[in-house]
Specification:
Blueprint (H helix, E strand, L loop, with lengths): L18 H11 L4 E5 L8 E4 H17 L6 E4 L5 H13 L2 E4 L6 H14 L3 E3 L2 H10 L10 E3 L19 E6 L9 E5 H15 L6 E4 L6 H13 L3 E4 L2 H6 L2 H10 L3 E4 L1 H10 L3 H5 L8 E4 L6 H10 L10 E6 L6 E4 L8 E4 L1 H5 L15 E8 L4 E6 L13 E7 L5 E2 L3 H8 L12 E10 L2 E7 L4 E3 L2 E3 L1 H9 L10 E8 L2 E9 L2 H6 L2 H16 L5 E5 L14 H12 L1
Protein name: Polyketide synthase
Pfam family, one: AMP-binding
Family: Belongs to the ATP-dependent AMP-binding enzyme family.
Length: 576
């Protein structure tokens, strides 16, 4: 980042309760303490930034943004994983610019998502690095959509000593785009109040202490990586330690080595991240060389959480000092800034075995003493944060559900965002819901189905994805878990189950990714029968259509979630 004489400490006119004022106050207390450690390619390549230098660079960049007339404007952030993103995101907060984090990619589908975000926000200026700008223009010179923007990189600096604006708690801080697993990505308007409230909620639930060391491989443009990995340790005067996501995908051992090397206390991943470790790390000697005893908060969220995954991971890495109690299943979303429920710390993996037939009718009945109940295990997503009020509501009638009944999860609290950018009608429907017959204010409709038991939240699936077949509620993720556990399946998020019209009836269909070797060597008819039998015996479901596909065939979001709606197309192409 460019340095100049404008390096006075950040002291906004209205700083009470502002996240950035809290972060940069650490520069006065301990300027030499490490704020960030970035490991792009291994231990020998580590880049660091102290709190004193962080303060200097953020103020310098913020004054450039003010001079460029970007206060109150949407500003695109298009960076490779790195410290530059940290500085420019915080600079946007200081300048009153509305940061729009985006995925830097050459993948055609992901690039289209980025272009959609640029159009939706009306961004005129993109912050990036000089190297990234050169590469983008070289690689994408034929894409006219990226022309016409003003690009600001580390070569640009303010020419005058600009005054930073007064920032209010209810001012927009940034725009976080949803993953778009069930619909087109939507821009969530997150305020400064939302940030500070959710940071406090995360700190309390995880029992994070001042000086926290946290981080990992999660993308910086994704809410879990941004709010949980990046902003939380900086909020507590700790250290944000991170690596590029691709390094993890290629060699997941690097994530665990990062945790060991820097004694990371808190690190998160979606469920597939833990599965990826077990799939790729097979050398017992490598595991025994690790010391994961420092990893006390292993958050698992962003996608449905599997108890079996966590139990197996804990057993596999116990010899490296990892403890069962470190697992921290949690629940949240961009619309609540990030965090909603989880913990308390050290409680580990908890779950309920439910009667599957009762659940199909929307009722909560345990199956502990019912051997013929086809039990379904639902993971406990932890205690609801006291920063939220939660109601379980019938999504059709809008009435509060009776106890022991599944309904839509509705939330209200200071972490709930303003709404969706440029979508007033949908924002009114989603962010201003009212419970029928009650007068206790507006709620956020999460779109997720679940229930509260013993003060803890249990999530059963997405309302939009719920399949109703012959009067029964069927949760696709439950069936996908069965498919993914098949010995010839790729596992992870390699299956999609959905309904299709089949004449005058509703049929159940599945698309399952199969290992390359199995597709080549195994009888496809036998694999079809195996999967259908597994679904019938374990879930009591008759599968009408099944398509076996090679690894990597299923369409997914940037965070690895299956786009079930697009999976219909694969089945249609096969039947055409």
């Amino acid at each position: 980042m460019a340095n100049n004489c404008f390096s006075t400490p950040y002291k906004p006119e209205s700083s009470t309760g502002l996240y950035l004022a809290q972060v940069l106050s650490h520069a006065e207390k301990h300027p030499e303490k490490l704020a960030c450690v970035f490991q792009p390619r291994g231990p020998e390549t580590a880049e660091t930034l102290s709190y004193g230098e962080l303060n200097k660079q953020v103020v310098t960049r913020a004054k450039l943004l003010v001079e460029s007339g970007l206060s109150g404007q949407h500003v695109g952030l298009l960076f490779p994983t790195g410290i530059e993103f940290v500085v420019d995101f915080l600079a946007c907060l200081a300048a009153g610019a509305y940061a729009v984090p985006m995925n830097l990619t050459k993948n055609a589908k992901q690039l289209e998502r980025t272009l959609t975000i640029l159009r939706d926000t009306g961004v005129k200026t993109i912050l990036t690095t000089q190297e990234t700008q050169v590469l983008l223009h070289a690689e994408l010179r034929d894409i006219q959509a990226l022309s016409g923007f003003r690009w600001l990189d580390e070569r640009h600096a303010a020419t005058q000593n600009r005054t930073l604006p007064s920032i209010q708690l209810d001012d927009t801080a940034f725009i976080q785009y949803t993953s778009g697993s069930t619909s087109a990505p939507k821009g969530v308007i997150v305020t400064h109040r939302n940030i500070i409230d959710n940071q406090l909620a995360i700190q309390k639930a995880c029992d994070h202490q001042p000086g926290l060391i946290a981080g990992g491989w999660l993308p910086q443009f994704h809410d879990m990586g941004l709010i949980g990995h990046m902003l939380q340790p900086l909020f507590l005067g700790g250290t944000y330690v991170f690596m590029p996501p691709l390094n993890f995908i290629q060699r997941p051992l690097r994530w665990l080595q990062l945790i060991d090397q820097y004694r990371i206390h808190s690190s998160a991943a979606p469920n597939f991240g833990y599965e990826h470790c077990m799939k790729m790390i097979r050398d017992d000697k490598q595991i025994q060389q690790l010391d994961l005893s420092c990893w006390k908060v292993a958050l698992n969220g962003s996608e449905p959480v599997k108890a079996s995954t966590m139990h197996t991971f804990a057993e596999r890495f116990a010899c490296a000092g990892f403890e069962h109690g470190s697992f921290f299943p949690c629940y949240g979303m961009a619309e609540t800034t990030l965090f909603v429920s989880g913990g308390p710390k050290s409680t580990g993996i908890r779950s309920l075995k439910l009667n599957r037939n009762a659940l199909a009718q929307g009722k909560i009945t345990t199956a502990d003493n019912e051997p013929d109940a086809l039990p379904l295990t639902i993971v406990n997503c932890g205690e609801l944060s006291p920063h939220f009020a939660c109601a379980i509501v019938d999504p059709i009638t809008g009435s509060r559900c009776q106890d022991s009944t599944v309904g839509e999860i509705w939330l209200k609290g200071r972490s709930v965002a303003k709404g969706y950018l440029n979508q007033p009608d949908i924002s009114q429907e989603v962010f201003a819901a009212k419970i029928a017959g009650e007068h206790d204010g507006q709620y956020l409709r999460t779109g997720d189905l679940g229930f509260v038991h013993g003060g803890c939240l249990f999530v059963t699936g997405r309302h939009k994805e719920l399949m109703i077949v012959r009067g029964k509620n069927i949760y696709p993720y439950d069936l996908e878990q069965i498919c993914n556990s098949y010995e010839h399946a790729t596992g992870g998020n390699g299956a999609s189950v959905f309904t299709v019209s089949d004449g005058d009836k509703t049929a159940i269909a599945a698309v399952v990714e199969i290992k390359k070797r199995s597709l080549r060597d195994q009888c496809h008819d036998v694999m079809n029968q195996d999967l259908k039998h597994a679904l019938s015996s374990e879930a009591g479901i008759t599968l009408d259509h099944l398509l076996l596909v090679p690894p990597g065939s299923l369409p997914k979001t940037t965070s690895g979630k299956v786009r079930r709606g697009e999976c219909h197309r694969l089945l249609n192409l096969d039947q055409a």
